[in-house]
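Moderator note: this is an archived Q&A kept for reference. The question asked for a predicted structure of one protein chain; the sequence and the answer are reproduced below.
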Amino acid sequence: FFNHVNEQITINVYDMKGSRVYQRAVTPTANYTRIDVDLGTAIPAGFYIVEVRGGNGSLIGKKKIVVYHN
């Protein structure tokens, strides 16, 4: 997703019940930045929503992901 340089963004991951299971704030140094999110094995396999919000709380992007464990 596009973001402004040096603007703090927040990455939230929600389960399908709407409970937040992960949150992380980062300050990207480029407009398009790859940010790896390691949910580990503590989070059960299933469907989740990843939401990226800007420094003012505005929604930058939102995607559904699938978590599975080998």
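Archived answer notes: The mean pLDDT is 90.
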